[in-house]
Records
---
Amino acid sequence: MLTDVRQVFPPIENGILKAVVVIRFPEDIFYGIKDKRIIDVMQSLPREAFVPDNLKTSAYVDGALPIGFDQTISQPSLVAYMTQLLELTGKEKVLEIGTGSGYQTAILAKLADRVYTIEIVKELHEKSKQTLESLGIINVEYKLGSGYDGWEEYAPFDRIMVTAAPPQIPPKLIEQLKENGRMVVPVGPQNQTQILKLIVKTRDGIIEKDTHYVRFVPMVE
Ligand code: SAH
C-alpha cells in the first residue's frame, strides 16, 4: 500500500500546522482503467470524508461500505469502472441519480463541467452537500427527489450516471439524454444480480450494451 501525506484545510488551526497521513488505494484496484485522470482524481480525493467515523479505517479497502439509511457507498473499483464508461473529457453536463455519500458525485465533478445530482433520502442529500462543500467542490447542483423524473429544468444531459438499480431503464432518463450522450445504469430486480448497462443515444436509436453483473441498492419508486 502507498502512503501519502495530505495537508488538511484550513492548514493552520490554533497555530498548529496540520497534516494527515492517508493510505491510498492499492494500484491493482484500477486494473483496466486506462483513463489516468480517473486514477489521479480517486487517489487525491479523501474517501474517508464520505464514510461514517467508525469505518474511516476501511475507507481504502476495495469494498462498499454502509452510509446509513440502508444505503452504501459503492466499491471504489466499480466507481472507477463506471466513471470510465462515461468517457468524460471535462466539458460535460452530467446527471447523477443517487447522491448517497457524494463520493461518486465528487469524482464526476472533478472530471466534468457540472454535475446535477438527485437523492431521495433527505439526510443523505443534506450531508453529501456539506461534505462536498467542505472539500471545496462547488460545480454541483443538488436536488432532493426521485431520480425517475430526471431533472427536466436542466435537461438534456451529455452523460447520466445511475447508482441505484431500477427494474427497467427509466424512460425519462433516456428522454433527458442528449444525442451522442452516454448513460451508465445498473438494471434488475431488488436484492438480486443486476446488469450494469451502457446506453448510447444515437440519431438512429438507442444502443444498449451489457457490461458486468453487479449488485446495487434498489432505485425506489
Ligand atoms: N453514489 C453513491 C452510492 C449511493 S447508493 C455514493 O457514492 O455514495 C444509492 C443511492 O441512491 C442511495 O443514497 C439511495 O437513497 C438513492 N436512491 C434510491 N432510490 C432513489 C431514487 N428513486 N431517486 C434518487 N435517489 C435514489
---
Amino acid sequence: MSTGKWTDYINPAVQNMPPSGIRRFFDLAAEMEGVISLGVGEPDFATPWHIRESCIYSLHRGRTSYTSNQGLPELREEIARYLAGQGAVYDPRRELLVTVGVSEALDLALRTVIQPGDEVIIPTPCYVSYIPCTTLAGGVPVTVATRLEDNFRLTADRLEAAITPRTKALLLCYPNNPTGAVMDRQSLLAIAEVVAKHDLLVISDEIYDRLTYTGRHTCFAALPGMRDRTILLNGFSKAYAMTGWRLGYAAAHPDFIAAMTKIHQYTMLCAPITAQVAALEALRHGQSAMEQMVAQYNRRRRLVLQGFKEIGLPCFEPGGAFYAFPYIGHTGLSAAEFAENLLREEKVAVIPGDVFGPGGEQCIRCSYASSVDDLTEAVKRMGRFIKNRTAGRAR
Ligand code: PMP
C-alpha cells in the first residue's frame, strides 16, 4: 500500500530531527576544488602502524569471531588499568562495556537512564549528537549556554539554575568539542557538589582526555562521591587516531553496565573483534605513538592561536581536544555567513558555531588536526578574508 508519500511512514521523532549542520558544510566543500578543510573533527594521522599490524596479524590467525557481549576480557582489564591510573577504579568483569565508538556508548547511556520527559542538562556549545540522541531517547534536552567570559566552562550556579524536579542527568564533555575548553579539578568539584545535592546522574564523555595541553585531565568519576553516579564514556578514536575502527567503552556502576549490556547485546551483539584487538595493542604499546601525536596537536594549537592573533581574530585559548573556537562577532557577519563566505571566497571550510547549540552563535569551530602547511595557508586566507570585510565595512 503506497500513497507515494513514504515520509508518512517515518517516525515523526526522526522526521523532525534536523540533519547535522556539519554535514552540510562537508557537502558544500566536497563540490569545490582546492578547499582546505578545518571542518572535520578527526585526526589527520593514520592509526600507528604497530596497532594496524596487530590487527592484521590477528586476522592471519583467524580471529574473526564474535567476542563476549561486554568485550574481550583482556581488553576490559587493560581499560580498567588505564582508568585506575586516572583515579577511577572499575571491576573489568562487571563495570565495563566495550562499545562501537563513544557514539554507541552515549546512545546506550541515554536510552538506559531516560524515561519519557526526563530532562538532561547539556552545556552548550556541545557535540552535535547530544541533543538529537537525548530527544530520540525520549528525554528533554535542557541546554545551558557556557560563556566566553567563563572560558566556556560550566559554572555551578548556571548548572543549579537549570535544575528542575524533572532533571535526571547532566551530560558533560571536557575537554570540549567544539570549544576546546577544559575544566580544572576545582571547577569540577563545584559541579560535583551541585550534582550530589540534587541527586543527579552524570554522563561524562571524556573522549578527548588524552588531548589535554594545559594541566592534567580530571576524570569526573574520580571525584569524591561521583563514581557511582557517573557513566564514564571514552574511546580510541581521538587519542590513537582510530576513528574508523569504531571502538569505545562505558565504565559505570554494575547496575548501569548490566542494563546497557542488555540493549547492546540485542542491537550490536558485540564490538568488532578486529577493533578490539587493535585497541588492546593501543593500550598496551601505543603510549609513545599517542604522545607524539598529542605533541603535534599542541604545536599546531599554538601555531593557529598565534596566527589568529596576527590576523586580528580573537580566540580564547583552548586547553584540550583539537579545536579552536575564535570569535567572529566583530566582522558583522553571523557565524553561518562567515563560514559560507569564507568557503566561497577563500576556500577554507570551518563550521559555524551555532550548529553546536546556544552560546556558539558568534564563533566558528576550526579543527587544527591538519598539517602545518594547511593550517598556515588557511590562517593566511582567513586573514585576507577578514581584511576585506573590515575594509568593506570601513568604507
Ligand atoms: N563525543 C565527542 C565529544 C566527539 O567529538 C566524538 C567524535 N567527533 C564522539 C563522541 C564520537 O566518537 P566515536 O568515534 O568514539 O564514536
